[in-house]
Structure formats: structure tokens, C-alpha cells
Design brief:
32% helix, TIM Barrel, elongated, 366 residues, alpha/beta, Lyase, Ornithine Decarboxylase, Chain A, domain 1
Length: 366
């Protein structure tokens, strides 16, 4: 983070402001393509759906993972067609299904028999991926707590779907968000291998394996380098799934490090021996990722010198809106600009306009 440059840009654009590095976004796409050769990348729109990101992704010939009609509207607004999208929500209303079909999406996800019944009326227009539940206590966000069929029951569900006349195209899973153990992918792929073998013996040809997302990025601490992280996954895919179409659904890895937040100190107070600094961005805004995504963001402050026990709070009237407590900081002044990195994933995506405060603007830089 070039503090001097970002502070100058922030002074020009006003704060709070999220700076989107177009070059970093493209670099992240290329890094993942290099680390996962032959894998089709579907950007997880839920991680950050601002049009500035989606437009760059469209220009990079990415595919898109959408899960709601709202996200379909997001991608459609920047000219992305349904043929480049996969609908990944395991639980859908009939209206959601029809909206996706009308947009041109033909691949859907299901994880239980009741959801299969919803898809039967449209069986001639779609194929499905059966989602597995892969438990991973080591990830930051467990995405199999709410969705997914137990791997041992997945083949039975595939048989049920096949018996209904549905086309089962393959299997999908998600090992968890900000997953730092790449062998979890191989554990899930071992289940997939067994399921594909059983399906083939039953005359059901599966063509797709969707390995989801979860590729880790740098926050306060550095993540495993991507090439090393993906090496065992690639080796397993090359050995056992050479004839399959492999899909991944990266979100955080694509957008996470591409946005940097600039926020200003708008007030300060000494309270019980602790300096309290009030910022113009907080938990109800871009720092919502601290609540929902359990993320800790690297910070740059404009001053050096003696450090004091300090608290950073957001601008709203709600007492829950406290970003960091009891951290050592040099004494700040009203008007100082603080910079936070890795603010791209699950930040503005879950931000609100609570208390009448607008979301941080997004400004594209190189």
C-alpha cells in the first residue's frame, strides 16, 4: 500500500473510499489460472458484486457463479450472458429457477430430494450438480454447515435425480472460505472419485467436478503461496479426473486484495484512559467483514511515535459499531486518513446504509 499516493487520492475523492486496483484484479485472475491450469474459473459474485469488478471480470473472459436473481441482475447489467453463469444456490424458489432459466442459465445445484422436485418441471432445460457437504473446522467460514449432502449419501441422491429424468452433470463441493489446508480439496476429491465410479457402474455419466473456492489470501498474516497451495490439488486432478470438466468458484482470491479502504478520523475522545477515535467507516459499512467474515485487515496509520492504548469506532450511533479495541496506536488527529488493505471480499458486499450513512464509494485505479 503506497500510503502517500492513497492519502492524496482520498483527499481528492473524499472518504470513506475503496480504491479498486484493476491491475491487481487481473493479476489475481492470471495467478489462479496459472496455478490451476485447465480449470474453468467462475467468479463468486457474492464476494463483491460492484459493477466495476464485474466489468473487469467480463473483460478477462471469466465465468460467473451466481446464486440469486439479484446477482443475475448484477451480471446482466454489465453485459454478461447467462451462458457464462452457473447457479449455485442449493435452495431456490420456483421464481428463482424461472428467472435463471430465462436469463440463459442451464446448470444448477441441488443437495436434497425436495429441491430435485422443484427442478423436474424444467428437466429438459437444465442439468444439475449435486453438492457435497465437506466439514472443515480449520477454515475461517464453514460453508458446509448449512448446505450439502453427506458424501456417503450423494450417490443415492444422484440415482434419485436420474430416476426423475433429471440430467446429473456432476458433483460440487466447497471446503470452506479462507481455507489454508489444500489437502482438504483432495479429501473432497477422494469422495468425488468414489461417487463417479459408482455412477459409471450404474450407467450414469458424470462430466463435471466443481471444486468450489476457499483459496486463501493475505490479511494480517501471509497465506501459503498460491502455486504451492494448488500443487497437490493439481496433481490429484491430473491423476484421477483428466477426462472431466473441472470448475472452481473463486471469490475472495480474485477480489480480496484488489481493494484498499481509506477512512478518516472524524472525532477523538479520551475515555477511561483510552484514546477513542471515531472513523467515517465502521462495522455497518465496509468493516462488516469483521462481523460476517471474521477478517482482520492490515492497517497503515499516518504517524509514528509513542503508542497509546486506543480504540477505533465507526460513525453510527450504535454501540456495537466498534472496529478495534485496546490496540496500540500513536496519537492521531482529527482529519488523519487511515488505510486498510485486503478490503475487497465480503466488505462492501455486506455493507448497509444503517443510520443513513452511505456505503463507501468505489474508485478504480491502475
Amino acid at each position: 500500500m503506497d500510503y502517500t499516493r492513497l492519502r492524496s487520492l482520498a483527499a481528492h475523492h473524499g472518504t470513506p473510499v475503496l480504491f479498486l486496483s484493476e491491475n491487481r484484479l487481473k493479476d489475481n485472475c492470471n495467478a489462479l489460472r496459472t496455478a490451476l491450469p485447465g480449470v474453468d474459473l467462475y467468479y463468486a459474485v457474492k464476494s463483491n458484486a460492484v459493477p466495476e469488478i464485474l466489468s473487469v471480470m467480463a473483460g478477462e473472459n471469466m465465468f460467473f457463479d451466481v446464486s440469486t436473481s439479484g446477482e443475475i441482475g448484477n451480471v446482466g447489467a454489465v453485459g454478461i450472458s447467462g451462458s457464462r453463469c452457473l447457479h449455485t444456490h442449493p435452495v431456490k424458489t420456483d421464481r428463482e429457477i424461472r428467472n435463471a432459466l430465462d436469463f440463459g442459465i442451464s446448470l444448477f445445484v441441488a443437495d436434497n430430494e425436495r429441491e430435485l422436485y422443484k427442478l423436474v418441471p424444467y428437466k429438459d432445460r437444465l442439468g444439475i450438480l449435486v453438492r457435497l457437504s465437506i466439514q472443515n473446522p480449520g477454515c475461517v467460514v464453514n460453508l458446509s454447515h448449512k448446505f450439502g449432502v453427506e458424501p456417503e449419501a450423494a450417490f443415492d441422491l444422484i440415482q434419485v435425480a436420474h430416476g426423475m429424468g433429471l440430467t446429473v452433470e456432476g458433483i460440487c463441493f466447497h471446503v470452506g472460505s479462507q481455507n489454508e489446508n489444500s489437502l482438504k480439496f483432495n479429501e473432497a476429491l477422494e469422495y468425488c472419485r468414489d461417487i463417479c465410479r459408482k455412477a459409471a457402474l450404474a450407467g450414469i455419466v458424470l462430466k463435471i467436478v466443481d471444486i468450489g473456492g476457499g483459496f486463501p489470501i493475505d490479511y494480517i498474516s501471509a497465506a501459503v503461496p498460491l502455486a504451492r497451495f494448488c500443487r497437490p490439488v493439481n496433481e490429484y486432478l491430473e491423476r484421477y479426473f483428466a477426462g472431466y470438466r473441472i470448475i472452481a468458484e473463486p471469490g475472495r482470491f480474485i477480489c480480496g486484495t484488489a481493494l484498499t479502504l481509506a477512512t478518516s478520523v472524524i472525532g477523538k475522545s479520551m475515555r477511561n484512559g483510552v484514546w477513542w477515535y471515531y472513523l467515517d467507516e465502521g462495522l455497518y459499512g465496509s468493516f462488516s467483514g469483521k462481523v460476517y467474515d471474521h477478517a482482520e485487515y492490515p492497517m497503515v496509520v499516518p504517524r509514528d511515535g509513542e503508542r497509546y492504548t486506543s480504540t477505533l469506532a465507526g460513525p453510527t450511533c450504535d454501540s456495537i459499531d466498534v472496529i478495534y479495541e485496546n490496540i496500540p496506536l500513536p496519537e492521531l488527529k482529527i482529519g488523519d486518513i487511515l488505510i486498510f488493505g485486503s478490503m475487497g471480499a465480503y466488505t462492501t458486499a455486506s455493507a448497509s446504509n444503517f443510520n443513513g450513512f452511505p456505503k463507501a464509494k468505489v474508485v478504480v485505479i491502475e
